[in-house]
């Protein structure tokens, strides 16, 4: 399974859920089907099952911890409010925070680097720098954040 593709689908699913008020299963199913059609020649059914499980776990995890994640992010958004962020940047920051604080399958630095790449891919010209700045501050205090849970 390609985790980069999984993260792209996670961000898109979170975006769909926020924009269109759909549940996670509907958002994930639609986006995985789309990704499978685009990558039909290189995708086998076992990869799809593994990808879907990973995506669903992370989408549901982010959504379940959204209030706590947003509270953490508010602390690091100097001069910004979550509601004022672009929807794409908001979902990327939420995913990275979930991976760093609540997850245990990737190192925090990997989550930050992946978030920066996603921001450059999906966001504006300044999104990568913005995401890097916010998560760079957060990663310095990651042990404290985890201990506070």
Parts with pLDDT < 50 across at least 5 consecutive residues: 41-45
Termini separation = 30 Å
**CATH class division of the largest domain:** Mainly Alpha
Q: What form results from the Cα inertia axes?
A: globular
Q: How many whole angstroms does the radius of gyration measure?
A: 15 Å
CATH topology group of the largest domain: N-utilizing Substance Protein B Homolog, Chain A
- The SSE order reads HHHHHHHH
The helix-and-strand class reads mainly alpha
Number of strands: 0
Mean pLDDT: 89
Percent helix among the residues? over 70%
Quaternary structure classification: single chain
CATH superfamily of the largest domain: NusB-like
Q: How would you portray this structure in words?
A:
This protein starts with a helix and ends with a helix. It is built from eight helices and no strands. It is an all-alpha fold. The chain has two domains: 1-64; 66-149, N-utilizing Substance Protein B Homolog, Chain A (Orthogonal Bundle), CATH 1.10.940.10. The relative contact order is 0.13. This is Transcription antitermination protein NusB. Involved in transcription antitermination. Required for transcription of ribosomal RNA (rRNA) genes. Binds specifically to the boxA antiterminator sequence of the ribosomal RNA (rrn) operons.
